[in-house]
Amino acid sequence: MRPLHDFVKKMDSFFNESFKQMNSQFHLKSIWVDVEETDSDIIVKAELPGYKRDQIHIEIIGNRLRISVKGMDNEKYSNSKRQSFEQKEKVVTVPFIIPEEETSASFQDGILKIFIPKKNSNRKYIDIEE
Length: 130
Fold this sequence. Notes:
It holds the Pfam family HSP20. The chain is an alpha+beta fold and 130 residues long. It has a domain at 28-117: Immunoglobulin-like (Sandwich). 19% of the residues lie in helices and 44% in strands. It has one helix at residues 2-26, and strands spanning 32-37, 41-47, 56-61, 64-76, 81-93, 104-108, 111-117. A 4-stranded antiparallel β-sheet has the order 1-2-7-6. Strands 3-4-5 form a 3-stranded antiparallel β-sheet, with no helix packed on it. It is elongated.
């Protein structure tokens, strides 16, 4: 199963990098997320430059993690200034119920990191008979 996991991760990386470049060209706004898996945790990293800790909201809904940000967007043009309210969100799904008490998050230098422990995942693997 590992080769499939590696393939999916490479495809995710390809599309994330491609869309990041498109984002900078077309000034699109989205939350860019990278998901890593270790033996003990799933680590969700979200790039949120320009946001403050109090503008970020994290919600656990079963096996889904919802990251949302709200804030003001100030754009300056040559003769005027425009201000608008913006809201972004990203939902990440994991293959088990997220333990609320053990899940933790940190925010530093525009990077949000969420640590979801896998120890309480009741995942079972089934052998395929011949």
